Every structure is written in structure tokens, then in C-alpha cells.
């Protein structure tokens, strides 16, 4: 049974976030201010409350492609070094206030060149913003949220475009700084990960880390390609791995609620296909994003979200926000939703936090230190 925890207690629990988009987490007030400063006239609303509502409602379409259209307006105002630096700094402050102790925040540098910046300048501006945010939090002055927090950047290439090799090289060039890895994102159906094999081969040969958005809007073939052709270390979402799990001879997707209930008592009753077994056996981390999945139609509801089934079957599940602006969410809210609507409690929240820290693209000794010195004392103390 879930313990009754107030929002404030969830907020204080140290949380680890592996999947959060910089351009999906801009403060609505900042979008408005940047638009005014820059003369960006295309915003669909002109006050904070209406703009927040517009993002959440427009992203609620049941389609990933339509969900992605809302990013036009955040990306539209993130075309200068100052705007990138500001949004990165505010991102760190917002995550620290949310109780996040370690985060990997991704964005696509190729989408921020319209104001004349080069790719390296985009990365430098975001890195500077992350550093500033970390320093403000560490400084602990009166306005600073509780901390400390560490934030790393992940560089994303857009899967419909053709710049992935260049972005992979950019990620490697900046890995001594804040950049911890690489990803591909954007519309999944019609744009398989194997279109970007050259980038992944380059990264593997450079001993660099990468994850791939796969198994969100497309099923098992996408996950299979991401892992077995491209060599992804983690899966962005990966929720469709449930298509490869059966209960009493039937696909679990026929009755997710029934499967979730059964998994708590009888995990041995489930049969994993070869791919699902590989993902679980190899402990491949799943970067799961419940609210985002409900919005894009990848999951029917929070109560029937496959995160419950996959966690009960001991896949390496992690809990993430994806896009805090479009989903009007936070790590605290995602945790609270799972407790209120899916029967989760502190043991599950502890497990996803430790799983995430084990799966982070940070050196082993640093991961271990956060698990031992920050996570375990807070959850076990
Ligand atoms: O959930 C998602 N799936 C695929 N692509 C996404 C998702 N959320 C954000 N993106 C895209 C839109 C952003 O502009 C881009 C880089 O952050 O990544
Ligand atoms: Zn995402």
C-alpha cells in the first residue's frame, strides 16, 4: 500500500532525472518575456496562465507528431546565446526546487541556429547556463532552492534530419565539459534509428554514451534496432516493450490492468519474448515518462501505465518528466501521480531513483557516491 505522503515530502525526496528536454521545460513566463524581447509574434497566448494551458492542451492530442508541434514556440525563442543560457540556468533552479539531485537534460543544438549561432556556441551557452544554475543552488542564498544539484547536458539529433553524425561529433568534442551523451528524438514512425547508424558507430568507437528514443510511437522493431543495430545503452521511453510480454498465452496489452494486478502477486506467470528478455537480462534502463505517454497516446492512463508492470517484473525502470512545460509536470508530480493512481509508495520511488543513478552517463565512482551519500540515507533513514 502506498503511504500517504504530502506533496512536500515527495518534493524533498532526492530524485534522479535522466530524460528531460530543455526546450520542453521552459518557464511559461520566460517564453513570454523572451518573445517580447525578441519581437517573436507567433505565440498563441499573451499571459502566463493562458500560455501554460495552451501548451498542456495542445500537447494532449493523443499523437506524438502533434505533441511535437508545440515545440515550435519554445525553440522559436531559444535562438540567442543569452536565451539559451537563461533557459538552462532556470532549468537547473526549477529542478533543484523539485528535489532533483542529478539530471541529464537534452536538447537539439541543430534547432538553435536560426539567430546565427554555430553549434559549438549553442553548446557553450547551454553549458554556461547549467554551471550558473548549479552555482546559484550550491551558494544556498536566500532565494536559492535546496540543493545541491548536478546537471549534465545530452545532445539530441533530430531523427527526420540528417545531421546526426555532426551532432555526435559535437557531443564528443564537448564531453570534458557538461555534455554526457547523445540521443535521437522527434517523430519515430517512419524514421527508424538505423537511419543514423553512422552517428552511433562513431560514438561507440569514441567510447561515448548514448540513448535512443524508441518504443514510444512505434513498437518492437524500433526498440530492436535501437539496441541490436545501433547499440543504445538506454531506451528513451521503451514502453512498447510490453508488446513482447504475454500472460497465460495472451499479450499483456489485451488487459493491462489485469496484468498489472497479477504481476504484484505472481511475476513468474509472465512469459517474456526474446527481446523483452534481452532488455531485462542486460538491465537496459527504460527512461519512462508517464504523463507524456498519456498525452501522446502511448499509454491509456497513469493507472494502466506499463511502468507498474515493468517495475513489478523488475525491468530497470526509471521515472522521468520528458517535457515539464507540455505536461505541466515535475518529478514531484510524476511521483505523486503514481502514488495516488497506481499504488506506488516509497519503495518504488527509491528503486527508480537508484536505478536512474546506476544508469546515468556519469563516471561510476560519482554515481556510487550519489547513491551511497544522498539517495540511501534519504530513503532508508
Ligand atoms: O517524447 C518525445 N519523443 C520524441 N521527441 C521528443 C519528445 N519530447 C521532445 N522531443 C523532441 C522535441 C524537441 O524539440 C527535441 C529536442 O529536445 O526533442
Ligand atoms: Zn523525450
TrEMBL record:
Xref: Gene3D superfamilies: Metal-dependent hydrolases (3.20.20.140)
Site (Important for catalytic activity): 237
Chain ranges passing through the membrane: none
GO-annotated cellular components: cytosol
Names of the cofactor(s): Zn(2+)
Keywords of this entry: Hydrolase, Metal-binding, Nucleotide metabolism, Zinc
List of residues binding substrate: 21, 23, 186
Highest taxon in the source lineage: Bacteria
Domain Adenosine deaminase as annotated: residue spans: 14-376
Pfam families in the record: A_deaminase
Function: Catalyzes the hydrolytic deamination of adenosine and 2-deoxyadenosine.
Family, per entry: Belongs to the metallo-dependent hydrolases superfamily. Adenosine and AMP deaminases family. Adenosine deaminase subfamily.
PANTHER family xrefs: ADENOSINE DEAMINASE
This protein's name: Adenosine deaminase
